[in-house]
Amino acid sequence: MANPDTLPPNEQTQHPKRKRTSTKPPTTSITLSNPHWSYIHLQHLPSTTANSNTTPNTTPLDAPTIHLHLRSALTQFLGLHGSAIAFDILKIEHHNVWLRVQAEDRVAFVAAIGGWVGKDGREGWRVKGWSYWDAGGGSDGDAGGLFD
Amino acid sequence: MFLLNKDEKSPPKCYFTSSSLAAYIDHAQIPRKKKPFSTILAHTFTHTLDIALPNPSAETLQKVLSNAKDGTLHFAKVYLKLEDILTGDFFNAYIKTGNILMLSEGRPGVDPVFSLSDGILRLEIDRPTFERVGLEGKPIPSAGRKHIKVRYAVELNLRLPSMVRGKPGFERVLWAARNVLNHSLAWVFCNLREPNDSAGPIAQHQPVWKTSQPQVETLRNVLIPPFPDHVSENDHETAEELLEWLSLVNILSPRVQKGDNVDPAISRYEVPTTSNESAEGSTRDLVRLRWRGFMPSAFIEKLLLATLKSVGEDWYAIAARSFDGQAYTILQNGSHTMTWEYQG
Fold first, then answer.
1. CATH number of the domain enclosing A69
2. In B, which residues are within 8 Å of A134 by CB distance?
3. GO terms for CC (chain B) (predicted)?
4. DSSP string for B277-321
């Protein structure tokens, strides 16, 4: 509104001293309070079978398998409603998976995944953290294991 | 919905600010009251720091950091009782005359958590403990949540002249440390005056010294969304989408890479583009440097200045996460600064 560039020429000549165009954009602050998404960091707990090594040498899961796992967990726990919850797999690293779900589905999703166990009763998922803003999923007091 | 978000403390908030930064920063007179510097200083205890930047400037930054050794973080893990901090050489050398940063173990909001910064000892404790310590404190606001136990914060400025042996105020603190808060705890310790000095009074407590070098990862052919020169007050979407993209880069997600033709059933994420489809050329190789450890804000400020210098007119992003769950992300594009501050 007060930008000298947009003023009609006659007004500009009236204020010759204000001609110095400010290239600095003004400071704006926004409070974001209705997040669309929530980001969840899961850890896959593989079933440690008979030859119980302390290091489970199971191969890390791939995206389609994870998708099936989570889909089955959601349907088991929440039925039709669970099958309608959509999620996006953002990143897979070894046994860690980062996901995105709709913010309002977060609680239902975490409850379904956290309570799910695989067929042998040992396989499962651990929710390592979640965040409304950060795809890394927060750290939830883990503090990067600095005190261990 | 039959599963309501009952555990919601308060509506989640993310504070976004778009501002401009002077082209030249005098290292002797850093504008610490302005963003992004004020954001860094507002977070005292950081455990994870990510810097993401495009490739040619990333190499410059790595060279600068390895020459100046600014990129190496020194801290220690040590088992101490509160009394060990308040007595003897430790108290005199580190608190009265020196400057250290310390934080005790414990889940924020659940366990007793003690911290020490700029000579101020802060004890966050639950009500029964607070009633036993006999020190003045304030209840920590819980935003009116029900069924949450009230916690108290006791803040003591140990640098005050009255905080010496023999003065009643200090004797009360010592009494509390001997009789109530007398557990041995794991602490992280950072000497702000001499970060490399491992010989000081801490040596008698068998500290475990740790150094942290950045872990460097490259993410190739990343689609770069258009960075706005200015964000208007109601443009929530741009602010949200940029933060999402930055945090995806920081977890090295393949979803931001060009040619990631993943099935929509797996992920529907798409890098935001401008409405006119001319943003074809905006793919670059990005480098992410990640530090983990006990980071004072001075360390991050130094890194930010080094990055600012290496990058020049290009852009970079810094994301940091604190022990109390606070986090921030800074995107600097030329002279345009964007910051996001949020919980979690």
1. 3.30.70.3250
2. 243, 247, 319, 321, 327, 329, 342, 344
3. multimeric ribonuclease P complex; ribonuclease MRP complex
4. TTGGG-EEEEEEEEEEEEE-HHHHHHHHHHHHHHHTTSEEEEEEE
